[in-house]
Structure formats: structure tokens, C-alpha cells
Known about the structure:
Largest sheet: 5 strands, parallel
Low-confidence stretches: none
Distance between the termini: 34 Å
Amino acid sequence: xxxxxxxxxxxxxxxxxxxxxxxxxxxxxxxxxxxxxxxxxxxxxxxxxxxxxxxxxxxxxxxxxxxxxxxxxxxxxxxxxxxxxxxxxxxxxxxxxxxxxxxxxxxxxxxxxxxxxxxxxxxxxxxxxxxxxxxxxxxxxxxxxxxxxxxxxxxxxxxxxx
Length: 162
């Protein structure tokens, strides 16, 4: 079986694989400091539950990453994934100027992927993303192993930033 024949396991990053708690302070101030929030991402500790699930999924699926992080964070994101010894995989990121809600951008990419590949599972912490993906027929694992952040939820839905 080639990689193109294997189903996809699609993983979110922030609060699914990476613990963003140490950088939430940048979203809790007015105005939000997005540059500092994303600049601190390389110091995110890994979330053991998410990392273990990604590694396990790589046994039967091709692991890919779907994040609301902007494209300008790609280099740091690739380095962080490698440092955590996570499976290599393609990374879909938000265009730098895309401010649509995460549930819109992620569902659009999932549907595009599903045109040519089987999506085995989506693993994400955003309840709105998960609910919309389930309504669209995707199998979802809700990443509930990170501390919730009201500021991050608002950013994902209303500001389209992550």
C-alpha cells in the first residue's frame, strides 16, 4: 500500500498537539498581541495524549496537519513537529490575511482532501470545528486534554486568527 492509498489522519496543532497555555496571556490583553502569541509557539510543550495519538495513527494512516496558524509560522511549526518526533506530514496553514473562522477554513480543506483521499479521522480541540466536521460526515476525535482558553476560542471563531 502506497502513502496515496492510506487514509488520512488529520491533526490540529494548538491545544491538540501543542500546549498553548504559556502564550495565552498575549490574547488576554487589549489589543491582542498576535505577533507575540505566534512568536512564542516554538516553546510550546507537547501534549502527551495528542502526540501519542498521532504516532499511533501513523501506523495505519498518513498523518497530516491542519492548523489555523498563519503561513508565516511554517518554519517554526515544521521545526516544532520535528523536535517532538511527530510523524512527517503535509501541513495546511491559514493564508496570512485569511480571517475566516477556523470552522470555515478547516472544513473547506477537509472537503478538498476528501475528494481524493479517505479521511480516517480529524483530531481537533475546537468544538465548532468538530461539530461542523461531524455534520459533514467526518469522524472526529475531540482533543479535550488541554486547558480551555476563552481568549483562544474567541480568536478562533470571531477573529479568524488560529
